[in-house]
Amino acid sequence: MVQNAEQKSIFVTTMSHEIRTPMNGIIGMTSLLLETDLTPTQKDYATTAKNSADLLLTIINDLLSVSKAEAEKMTLDLANFVPVDVVEQTVQLLATKAVEKEVELISDFADDIPDSVCSDLGKLQQVLMNLLSNAVKFCSHSGSVICRLAR
Question: I need a labelling partner for 71 at 20 to 30 A (CA). Which of 95, 101, 131, 136 fits?
Fold first, then answer.
C-alpha cells in the first residue's frame, strides 16, 4: 500500500511539473499581450484568459500539494493580498458561466473588510472558485448567487 502511495505521489509530482511549463508560457504570453494596445473588449478577454490560466496553475499546484500532504510535507504559502480583489476576480471568471445559465452572480462586501490580509492566496482562490462554481452550477435558471465577504 505504501508503495502505491509513493508511485501515485511521484506520478502527480511529475505531471504537475510537466503541465506547469506550458501554463507558465500561457501566463507569460497573456501578460505580454496585456501590455500592448488593446481595445477594452480585447483587454477584458485577455485579462480573463490570464486570470483563468493563473487559477489553473493554482489548481495544478494544489495537485502537487495533495501529493505533499499525503507525504506529510504540506505547507502554507502565506502572502499579503487584497481580499476584495480575490472575490472580484473569481466572480469575473465565472461571469460567462452565470450569464449562460441566466444566473445573477453578485459580489457583496461588508464595510469592515481589511485592505490586506495574510493567508494562502492559492488555496483561498481554489476554495472560492469551487464554491461559486458549484453554486452557479446548481442554481436554478433565473436565480442568483451572492458571494458576501464579511469579517
Answer: 131
